[in-house]
Amino acid sequence: MVVGRIGARLAYRATACLLGLLLAACGKQGPVEEKPAEVLAMVGSQGITPETFRDELARRGRLAPERYADSTGKAAVLEELIRSEAVYQRALAEGYHNDPQVVTRLKQMIAARYQEDQMAKQPHIGVTKEEIADYYDRNLDRFGKPAKSRVAMVELKVARTASAEKRAEIRQAMELLRSQIVEARSAEEVFARIARDHSEHQASRYRGGDIGWLSAGEIPGGWEAAMVEAALRLEQAGEISPVVETPTAFYLVRLTERHPASVRPLEEVREGIEYLITRQKEQTAIEVFFAEQKRGLHIWTNQALLESIQALEGDHPPPALPGGSTAQTSNQYQR
What we know:
This protein has helices at about 5-20, 20-25, 50-60, 70-95, 100-120, 130-140, 165-185, 185-200, 200-205, 225-235, 265-295, 305-310, and strands spanning about 30, 40-45, 45-50, 145, 150-155, 210-215, 245, 250-260, 260-265.
């Protein structure tokens, strides 16, 4: 398995795109020697070899093989290689190969390719059943399902500025409603009727007060914490809470159904654990790789200078084209 292959390849491709016009032919083409028959085309003193052409044709053919099967397609590919070589030679003549940005990108490309090749030589990273089981046992809290309760409620609102007498009046009314529910033969039907006739929570009153599932450790937006906590304390289906008072309302809560807390079985999470362990091992291997590369080199950092350098502002977007579209680089230069 290639460790860190994706990260290295992305870095390699990103820098390659920036230098594509300048370096597309670099390392593939050389000056004509004594075998002109083995050269497809000449650009100045440089030849484009069949090997270079075949590599480029194969790369493009993976995406659209039929497009490059005939002579027209082949000629188009060769013309692009000629253009690239021409631009490359002009760039060299003007000293672009000494440009600091170009030199930096080349270093990044070489380092990324070297890292990719070295990582490919690493032994396959495997994860054993024992490692998966051990990770599962040490992280049971990550695979747990919290207890959750499905509840119905009756809500009577009260103003924050209500007097103590007014609050006592509403509480007494709610206590009376609770007694009717508790003493009824069919508490569920009575609770639903009371919710329909008295609850001031419009979204649930015509559903018998049902407000759905509440999970332990969560306070859904819009619900009073005291009401949710009272609901989660109920243990038996059909159980009715005491009257719950908050600054803005009084509540009665009835437990409809309850699912206790549980832990997802190992088989259900095995693949996810294997992925996590693999990623951890890959990251460790990458850190070891970099440590080995730095070993024996004198490395020094000017911390004061580093801290004094200010980050540059982000690039501005390209100007809009007529009609409102954002300017985009021509596809000719995005190959």
